[in-house]
Amino acid sequence: MGVKHEIGEHSFRRICVPTPELMQLQRWIDKNILSVARPHSASVAYSQGKKLIDAAQLHCSSTWLVKLDVKNFFESITEIDVYRVFLSLGYPALLSFELARICTRLGVDSAYARKDVFAVRRLARRKDYVAAYSRPRMGRLPQGAPTSPKLSNLVMRSFDKDMTDLAQKEGMTYTRYADDLCFSTKSPSYTRDRATKLIRSVYGALGAIGLGPNRTKTVVVPPGARKVVLGLTVNDVRPRLPVELKSRMRVHLHYLTIFGPVEHAKRTGFTSTLGMYRHLAGICAFAQQVEPELAKDWLAKLQGISWIGDASVP
C-alpha cells in the first residue's frame, strides 16, 4: 500500500493507496460485505441514499449549534475495532481477524506506538490469543482504502447510538459526517453551560472507544451567530452556500479569464492546471446539491475557459 499526499487549495492530507491486487480485494469486501451492513441512522457520510444537504437540513433554523471534530479519525480506528465489526456480521473469529488485517495498514506514526504496545499486551492475556499472529504494532484504517469509509461507520454504530440518546435527552439533534459531530437545538432556553456539559460528555465517550477530540475545532455557536454545518450555512429554513465560497469561486473564475489556467495555478499554489480544474469542478459539484442554478453558471464559465496547454506548472 503506497502513500501519496493530496493537495488542496490551502492544505494537504496523506492518502494510502492500495496495490492493484489489494484494491481489487478491498473493493470486493466493500461491495459484497460492507454494503450489506447498515450504519446508525445518525451517520450521514458514505451511506447510500444519504446526501450532505439532507444532513445539514436537520440543523437548519437552530438556536444553538455545537460542533466537534475527531482527531486522526481513520488512523485511530484499530484492527481490533475492525475485527469486532466482521465478528458482529457473523463471520468466524479467524476469518474476521484475517479480514481485519486485509482492511488495515501498519502505520508509520510513532505517536501510536505506546498505545499499540499496551493493546497487544492486553490481547496476549486473553485465552483466545494466537501468538503466531502477534506483532508489536497495531494495524489501523488507512485513508484511501475503499473499505475504510464504511468500516468506520460500522465501528461507530454504538457510539452513534449513545450520542443520539444523549442528544434526545438534551432536546437536540445529532449527526455525524465521518469525523464531524454536530448537535443542534431549536430551544430558546438552551444555555452555554449545558453546551459545555455536553462537550465534556462527548469527550468522555470518545475517550472510552480510543478516540480523541480535536479540541481546536470544538465550537459552540449561540443564537444570532452564523451557523455552518458541513460547509453549508444553516441559519435559514434551508441550507445555503457560504458567502466565502461564492466569493472565492468568483475570484477564481475572474482571474482564470484574465491570466489563463497556467499563470493562475502558479499564483494560487496549485502544482498543475489539472489539479486546479478538478478542485474547482468539485466545488461546482458540491454547489449543485445546494444552489443548482448558480452551480450550472459556474460550471459553464469554467468549461468555457481554454485549458489547452501544459498540464504541469513549472
First-to-last CA distance: 29 Å
Helix vs. strand class: alpha+beta
Low-confidence stretches: 3-12, 310-314
Total number of beta strands: 10
Strand order of the largest sheet: 6-7-3-8
Topology as a string of helices (H) and strands (E)? EEHHEHHEHEHHEEHEEEHHHH
Secondary structure elements and pairings:
Elements: E1 2-7, E2 12-17, H1 20-34, H2 52-57, E3 64-69, H3 79-88, H4 93-102, E4 105-106, H5 113-124, E5 139-140, H6 148-155, H7 157-169, E6 173-177, E7 180-185, H8 192-208, E8 219-221, E9 228-229, E10 232-233, H9 243-259, H10 261-268, H11 273-290, H12 292-303
Helix pairs in contact: 3-4, 3-6, 7-8, 9-10, 11-12
Q: In words, what does this structure look like?
A:
The protein has helices at 20-34, 52-57, 79-88, 93-102, 113-124, 148-155, 157-169, 192-208, 243-259, 261-268, 273-290, 292-303; strands at 2-7, 12-17, 64-69, 105-106, 139-140, 173-177, 180-185, 219-221, 228-229, 232-233. The relative contact order is 0.15. The two termini are 29 Å apart. By secondary structure, it is of the alpha+beta class. The strands form four sheets. The chain has a four-stranded antiparallel sheet. The chain has a two-stranded antiparallel ribbon with strand order 1-2.
Quick structural overview:
It is built from twelve helices and ten strands.
Features:
disordered N terminus; 314 residues; disordered C terminus; single chain; 10 strands; alpha+beta
